[in-house]
Every structure is written in structure tokens, then in C-alpha cells.
Design goal:
The chain has about 280 residues and is mainly α. It contains 11 helices and no strands. Helix 1 crosses helix 6 and helix 4 runs antiparallel to helix 8. The chain is elongated. The N and C termini lie far apart (about 60 Å). It is found in: Cell membrane; Membrane.
Length: about 280
């Protein structure tokens, strides 16, 4: 029979509570773990698209409809009848900028819908960085944007698009569009987290999209616009992106418009990304 020896504490000695493990702070998740979480969430979002192919409808059909619509409806009026091939080289790089805006709008609607379904509440109970949920969403949407851009360029080549520079300039134009589109997604994620319904997100997004898209150099040269509107287009980030992509593909000065586009992308991301992550943490 074994005996247990109990050692009594000296009289007057303070009693110490058993040590408890310190809680792990959310912000202390390492970079490697964060990247692993992002990868797992990207895979989950990609599998969702595989299970619901209809969610790719906008990325597949939108570029086809837009380029056919603008080339055959506005091409003759802007470039002259029979010169649609000239307008194809003008409008296709501009539509690359437009693709980013429309895909970004879908991100905000999707985030809002995920909260309604309770998916995001489940993610917030997991020991993962809150930013990884949003970054994974952006990574998948950038992939959708790449598919939309590839379809747009494919249709452009069928309609007479020509590359007057080089293949590497074309890749640079695509990369610039992806960077700017990813920055816009933070704006629409913030809208999706701030507004109550998906319809409200879509309505607010259209109020932002319409003036930026049509008050730019995407569809027509700005020289024919009134002075006040031409001034607005000079500061419109979509004009800078459209001009950058257009000059990278057709040839022309690119330094100013490229740096302006990258500057806009940096400012938008730095301002809205922390706000979106903070809103994601606090949203009820």
C-alpha cells in the first residue's frame, strides 16, 4: 500500500495559485501559419466555385458582352464607320480596367451574403488571423479577374486587336490591372461589411462605378469632353489605369500614368484594408 506525503506550507506563507497558460493574442499568429490559413481558405473558396459554376457567369460572359457592345455600337461613332479595328485597340485596354471594377463589386456583395449565412461568424470563432479570411477572398477574386481579362483579350484578338509593343508589355498591362483591381476590392469589402443588405451594397457600388467608368478615358478620348469633365478624368484613377494599359499595348509614354495608378492602388489599400479588417472583427 503506497502512501502520499503531504508537505504543509509554513504558517503565514502566501498561497500561490497554479500557473495558467497565457492566452494567445490574435495578432501573434506567425507569418507561416497565416499563409497556411490563407491557402486553406483559398482552397475552400475555389471549391465553392467548382460546386457552383454559375458563380463564374459574370467573369465569363461580361467581357464578351461588353467588348461586342462597345465595339459595334460605339466604335463606328467614335472611330468612323468601317474603322472598328481601330476602336478595338482603343477600348480593349480600357475594358481591362472596367473588369476590375465589376469583379470588385461582386466581392462586396459576396461578403455581405456570407455574413447573412453565418459563414463569417464561424470563421471568427477559429484561431486564425481575421485578415486571412479577407485576403483569401481577394486572392480568389483576382483569379476570377484573370479569367475575365483572358476572355476579354481573346475576344479582342478575334475582333482585330494588335499588340504594337511586346508580349512583356501586355503582361505588364495585365499585372497593373490586377494590382489596381485588388486594391478596389478592399473598398467593396468595406461596403459589404458596413451596409445591411446585398442590395444596398450593389446600389451603392453602382453609384460609385457609373461616374468613374463613364467619366474616364475607358470608352472615348477625353479631349472631346467639356473642360470641367476633362479635369475630373485627369484625376480619375480609372483613366490613369486605362491610359497605362493602352500605352503599354499600343505604345506611348507610360511612366506618369503607371506611377499614378500604382500610387492610387497603394493609397486605397493602405486606407481601406485596415478599416475593412477592423470592421470584420467588430461586425455583429
Amino acid at each position: 500500500m503506497s502512501t502520499t506525503t503531504v508537505t504543509k506550507s509554513p504558517v503565514g506563507a502566501p498561497r500561490t495559485a497554479p500557473a495558467r497558460p497565457a492566452p494567445t493574442a490574435e495578432g501573434r499568429i506567425g507569418l507561416r501559419a497565416n499563409l497556411r490559413h490563407i491557402g486553406a481558405l483559398v482552397r475552400r473558396n475555389a471549391l465553392q466555385i467548382k460546386q457552383d459554376p454559375e458563380s463564374m457567369f459574370d467573369a465569363v460572359m461580361m467581357p464578351i458582352i461588353f467588348i461586342l457592345l462597345f465595339v459595334y455600337v460605339f466604335g463606328g461613332a467614335i472611330s468612323g464607320k468601317g474603322n472598328n479595328d481601330v476602336y478595338v485597340n482603343y477600348v480593349t485596354p480600357g475594358l481591362m480596367a472596367m473588369m476590375g471594377m465589376n469583379i470588385a463589386m461582386a466581392v462586396g456583395v459576396g461578403i455581405n451574403d456570407d455574413f447573412k449565412k453565418g459563414v463569417m461568424d464561424r470563421f471568427r470563432t477559429m484561431p486564425i488571423a481575421r485578415s486571412s479570411v479577407l485576403i483569401a477572398k481577394i486572392v480568389v477574386e483576382v483569379g476570377r479577374m484573370l479569367i475575365a481579362t483572358a476572355i476579354l483579350l481573346g475576344m479582342g484578338f478575334l475582333l482585330g486587336l494588335e499588340i504594337h509593343t511586346s508580349f512583356f508589355h501586355l503582361l505588364a498591362a495585365i499585372g497593373l490591372s490586377m494590382v489596381f483591381g485588388a486594391s478596389l476590392m478592399w473598398i467593396f469589402i468595406l461596403l459589404g461589411l458596413s451596409l445591411k443588405t446585398a442590395q444596398a451594397v450593389q446600389g451603392m457600388a453602382m453609384l460609385v462605378l457609373m461616374p468613374l467608368q463613364f467619366g474616364s478615358s475607358i470608352f472615348a478620348p477625353t479631349s472631346s469632353m467639356p473642360g470641367w469633365l476633362e479635369t475630373f478624368t485627369d484625376y480619375n484613377p480609372l483613366s490613369n489605369l486605362a491610359d497605362s494599359a493602352r500605352n503599354l499595348i499600343n505604345g506611348g509614354p507610360v511612366a506618369h500614368s503607371v506611377w499614378m495608378t500604382l500610387g492610387w492602388a497603394l493609397v486605397i489599400t493602405v486606407v481601406t484594408a485596415p478599416l475593412a479588417v477592423a470592421k470584420f472583427r467588430k461586425k455583429t
